[in-house]
């Protein structure tokens, strides 16, 4: 079976320009060699901290950015080499939903206009577009009379539903969800998460779920890829990543999450990483995580660890010294 | 600060309706709108209102003061001042609006193209704007009028071309900030091209600030028209404009003994420009509540 | 019980807006004992930040504040002169804000700002000593190489480092109370863990009481001694942190905990609170939570439940809090 989406060696480097002549003095390696694979109906989460390249990866998938190098194979066709016309048709199948419930909806359009826009852009509105918009609003749990209102009249959770309806307008097979619930209050966040899961079951959607919130990722994902400074450091099934993480960065991330249970908080073992994430314009040699890693050895500075399964745990990890920890975080 | 609570608005209100409501809270602007409406109506119905032909020479009743027959008196050739004033209003307002339209159209097009395409196109358009803004416009218009011969059309185009950079810069700024907004990214992700973005997102977003600039451009153009016509480079006699009516009244004797000849066009220019500026201020506060004092 | 360090009684804050009066905070009472960490939890618009900001009169002019009492160590803060209030801000009461980028002056060095925080509260200002103290404070909060980094500007600091600098300023004058408004919300998880550890250390070393304003129940569980839950501008529940997480006695608190995806528990389906937070310009009649509440019945639609003591050190503003004690 061929996968729905297969990404190979994806790179995105942003030039840094200085001076009057805008001479290039360096580059930010936002995404630096990423491989991904995703099947229909599956959720793959990209997790990591700000600057790890997860959002850039998402934008590359929907071609809001042009990749510097690499292949994006969608249903077997390489999006990077398609003609404009073929791309225009293909990109309908990959849509994106954004984080900010305020910035992601035009303040000057009614809900109807917002959800109808993709249909109009693709010239599909004339053919039953109004009915389609009504059906989409219903699908995400909004009432038909909401269509005439403006986005600012809605709460954050409702706004995210409007954004979801817009993303679904073109019958996509893959949705890139860029921090879709991070800006929402917890009580509302759970509504949207349940909705996303329900829609996935109903419509057979595949999700690339981009998030820094590991609790949400653990709840929603089938598979997880952990990113650090533009590369994937560990990837596997949800169970692999959350119960048997072998990369020290994954372990530190999991251990850093505050657990909403005060019992035993003083006995809990925490891995607190030192320092900040280095700049992606000047990443460390060898292993990129070594500057914050408590296990770092001589070899880590010279040799970038490949993403392979070294110790036979069934999932790959980009660490020279992977090991399954005895206990994890709050568990 | 939890701004979300404070931003909560009652249902069913479009951004335009909210702006209109704020505009109505501006007494000077509201009065100015009414005043401008009056001026426009008076200019449209100039003939029935004045009851005289603006160009009818009547040497027998030259230089008479205001009377029942000639409400604002007559000039040196006996033409009715009120009638000339109202007909001049057509030209002044026409020139003001037409040149502002040119400025807005050129500015919006160039500004949004510069912002959307970026790179060298952006550089070129912005340098062009710098060139236009750094020239003393009056001097250049005088030279152009001198070469092409004075006419209303030349004047409209010249004034319009010198005013586009203000609008162009605003539209470019709006475009640049919009380009990275998530709702514009979402539109691009569905396959929207630059023309679509311009029509559906950039122009609607730029409209409020542009309307403010356009209003102020109208005021400036009216004043500039008066100046040029006063210098003899704008509207040519026998057609009247507020500017060339003042030209006729430059001698000391006229200023001293026949004040009706210069008072009425002078007041007309001053009040109209003032009113248009008030409307511009009101609009600015209405479309951008944060700028309100 | 000893006299509380901070006592707020009957606090209400209204904002006049174009859309009518917004009741941001209504009848909030709160006491903070010396040395304890009190978390004020709530979602956006719950009034948690407004409550804390009104203590030091840091609200914008549009805010109309009324209170029966706001007292710090027995001093009435409502009527205090502006000059004496300034002496309290940054002195015995330290502040930490959510966004250190906007809370720091971008054109002043980090060291200059920390030293200024020290100088403002010295009786005989000594610039050299203040600078030395700034270096010492930055070292204390874990800024590496403090002697060099004091000379840098805020934009040269990472988000986590800026928040450390803010904490240095807050503890500069050995405060009795620290007010921390969403101190880790803008930070990445690994940096959040660093800052939480630092807050724990700062609290332990200065012995200062802390008001921690947050929407993150994880942060609350990690740090707080006592929790005050706010909803729609009112306190709906208040309890010790262990009691609150073990048996929430207000349906809103219970709903919040149930809607949280957990690292430590496997649930198939999250149990969200239905509906949306109320519009504070037109809050619902009766109990503000009734439109979203699974326990709601007629009484809740008409009668506002008062915040009543339901056990030692815990209170709930629900007519039917007893039912929660049984079911949980």
TrEMBL record, chain A:
Transmembrane segments: none annotated. It comes from Plantactinospora alkalitolerans. PANTHER family: D,D-DIPEPTIDE TRANSPORT ATP-BINDING PROTEIN DDPF-RELATED, TRANSPORT ATP-BINDING PROTEIN. PROSITE patterns: ABC_TRANSPORTER_1 (PS00211), ABC_TRANSPORTER_2 (PS50893). The lineage of its organism: Bacteria, Bacillati, Actinomycetota, Actinomycetes, Micromonosporales. Keywords: ATP-binding, Nucleotide-binding, Transport. It comes from the Bacteria. The keyword DNA-binding does not apply. Belongs to the ABC transporter superfamily. NCBIfam families: oligo_HPY. Residues 5-254 form the ABC transporter domain. One of its GO terms (molecular function) is ATP binding. This is ATP-binding cassette domain-containing protein.
From TrEMBL, chain B:
The chain crosses the membrane at residues 29-46, 93-118, 138-162, 202-223, 260-280. Gene3D superfamilies: MetI-like. It holds the Pfam family BPD_transp_1. It comes from the Bacteria. It is found in: Cell membrane. It is a multi-pass membrane protein. InterPro entries: BP-dependent_transpt_permease, MetI-like, MetI-like_sf, OppC_N. The keyword Transmembrane helix applies. The keyword Secreted does not apply. Residues 89-280 form the ABC transmembrane type-1 domain. Keywords: Cell membrane, Membrane, Transmembrane, Transmembrane helix, Transport. Belongs to the binding-protein-dependent transport system permease family. This is ABC transporter permease. It comes from Plantactinospora alkalitolerans.
TrEMBL record, chain C:
SUPFAM superfamilies: P-loop containing nucleoside triphosphate hydrolases. It is found in: Cell membrane. Residues 8-257 form the ABC transporter domain. The keyword Phosphoprotein does not apply. This is ABC transporter ATP-binding protein. The lineage of its organism: Bacteria, Bacillati, Actinomycetota, Actinomycetes, Micromonosporales. It is a peripheral membrane protein. Belongs to the ABC transporter superfamily.
């Amino acid at each position: 079976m061929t996968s729905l989406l297969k990404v190979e060696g994806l790179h995105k480097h942003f030039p840094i320009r200085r001076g009057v002549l805008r001479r290039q003095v360096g580059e930010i390696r936002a995404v630096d060699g990423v491989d991904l694979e995703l099947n229909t109906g599956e959720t793959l989460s990209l997790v990591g901290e700000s600057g790890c390249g997860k959002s850039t990866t998402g934008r590359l998938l929907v071609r809001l950015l042009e990749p510097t190098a690499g292949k994006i194979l969608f249903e077997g066709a390489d999006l990077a080499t398609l003609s404009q016309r073929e791309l225009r048709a293909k990109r309908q199948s990959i849509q994106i939903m954004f984080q900010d419930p305020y910035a992601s909806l035009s303040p000057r359009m009614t809900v109807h206009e917002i959800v109808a826009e993709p249909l109009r852009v693709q010239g599909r509105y004339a053919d039953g577009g109004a009915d389609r918009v009504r059906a989409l609003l219903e699908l995400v749990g909004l009432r038909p009379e909401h269509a005439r209102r403006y986005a600012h009249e809605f709460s954050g959770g409702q706004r995210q539903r409007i954004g979801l309806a817009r993303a679904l307008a073109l019958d996509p097979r893959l949705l890139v969800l860029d921090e879709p619930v991070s800006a929402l209050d917890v009580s509302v966040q759970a509504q949207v998460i349940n909705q996303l899961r329900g829609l996935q079951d109903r419509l057979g959607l595949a999700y690339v779920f981009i998030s820094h919130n590991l609790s949400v990722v653990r709840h929603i994902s089938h598979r997880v890829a952990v990113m650090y400074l533009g590369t994937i450091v560990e990837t596997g099934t949800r169970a692999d990543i959350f119960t048997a993480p072998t990369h020290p960065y994954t372990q530190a991330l999991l251990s850093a999450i505050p657990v909403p249970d005060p019992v035993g908080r003083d006995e809990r073992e925490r891995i607190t990483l030192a320092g900040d994430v280095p700049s992606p314009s000047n990443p460390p040699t060898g292993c990129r995580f070594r500057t914050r890693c408590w296990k770092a050895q001589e070899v880590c500075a010279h040799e970038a660890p490949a993403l392979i399964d070294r110790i036979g745990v069934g999932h790959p990890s980009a660490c020279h010294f992977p090991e399954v920890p005895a206990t994890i975080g709050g568990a | 600060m939890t701004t979300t609570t404070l931003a909560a608005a009652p249902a069913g209100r479009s951004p335009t309706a909210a702006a209109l409501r704020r505009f109505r809270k501006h007494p000077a602007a509201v009065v100015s709108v009414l005043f401008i409406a009056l001026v426009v109506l008076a200019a449209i119905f100039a003939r029935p209102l004045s009851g005289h032909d603006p160009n009818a020479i009547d040497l027998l009743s030259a230089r008479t003061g205001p009377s029942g027959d000639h409400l604002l008196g007559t000039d040196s050739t006996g033409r009715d001042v009120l009638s000339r004033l109202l007909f001049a209003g057509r030209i002044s307002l026409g020139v003001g609006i037409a040149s502002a339209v040119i400025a807005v159209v050129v500015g919006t097009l160039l500004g949004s193209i510069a912002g959307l395409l970026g790179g060298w196109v952006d550089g070129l358009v912005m340098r062009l704007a710098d060139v236009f803004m750094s020239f003393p416009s009056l001097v250049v218009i005088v030279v152009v009028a001198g070469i092409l011969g004075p006419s209303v059309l030349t004047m409209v185009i010249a004034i319009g071309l010198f005013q586009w950079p203000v609008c162009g810069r605003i539209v470019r700024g709006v475009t640049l900030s919009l380009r990275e907004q998530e709702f514009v990214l979402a539109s691009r992700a569905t396959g929207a091209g630059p023309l679509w973005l311009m029509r559906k997102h950039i122009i609607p977003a730029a409209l409020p600030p542009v309307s403010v600039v356009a209003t102020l451009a109208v005021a400036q153009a009216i004043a500039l028209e008066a100046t040029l016509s006063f210098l003899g480079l704008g509207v040519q006699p026998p057609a009247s404009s507020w500017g060339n009516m003042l030209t006729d009244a430059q001698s000391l004797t006229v200023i001293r003994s026949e004040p009706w000849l210069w008072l009425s066009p002078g007041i007309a220019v001053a009040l109209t420009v003032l009113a248009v500026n008030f409307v511009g201020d009101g609009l600015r506060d209405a479309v951008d509540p944060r700028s309100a004092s | 019980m000893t006299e509380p360090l901070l006592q707020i009684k009957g606090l209400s804050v209204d904002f006049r807006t174009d859309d009518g009066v917004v009741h941001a905070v209504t009848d909030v009472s709160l006491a903070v004992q010396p040395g304890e960490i009190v978390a004020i939890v709530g979602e956006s618009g719950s009034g948690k930040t407004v409550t804390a900001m009104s203590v030091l009169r840091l609200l914008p002019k549009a805010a109309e504040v009324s209170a029966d009492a706001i007292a710090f160590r027995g001093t009435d803060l409502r009527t205090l002169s502006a000059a004496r209030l300034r002496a309290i801000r940054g002195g015995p009461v330290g502040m930490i804000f959510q966004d250190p980028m906007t809370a720091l002056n971008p054109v002043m060095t980090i060291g200059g700002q920390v030293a200024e925080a020290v100088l403002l509260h010295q009786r005989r200002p000594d610039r050299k000593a203040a600078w030395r103290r700034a270096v010492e404070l930055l070292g204390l909060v874990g800024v590496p190489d403090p002697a060099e980094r004091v000379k840098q500007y805020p934009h040269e600091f990472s988000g986590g480092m800026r928040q450390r600098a803010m904490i240095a300023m807050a503890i500069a004058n050995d405060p009795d109370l620290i007010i921390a408004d969403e101190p880790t919300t803008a930070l990445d998880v690994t940096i959040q863990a660093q800052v939480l550890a630092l807050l724990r250390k700062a609290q332990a070393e200065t012995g200062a009481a802390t008001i921690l304003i947050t929407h993150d129940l994880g942060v609350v569980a990690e740090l707080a001694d006592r929790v005050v839950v706010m909803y729609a501008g009112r306190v709906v529940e208040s309890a010790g942190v262990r009691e609150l997480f073990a048996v929430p006695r207000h349906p809103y608190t219970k709903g919040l905990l149930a809607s949280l995806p957990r690292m430590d528990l496997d649930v198939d389906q999250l149990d969200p609170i239905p509906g949306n937070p109320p519009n504070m310009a037109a809050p619902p009649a009766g109990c503000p939570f009734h439109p979203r509440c699974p326990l709601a019945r007629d009484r809740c639609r008409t009668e506002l439940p008062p915040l009543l003591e339901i056990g030692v050190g815990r209170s709930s503003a629900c007519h039917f809090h007893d039912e929660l004690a049984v079911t949980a």
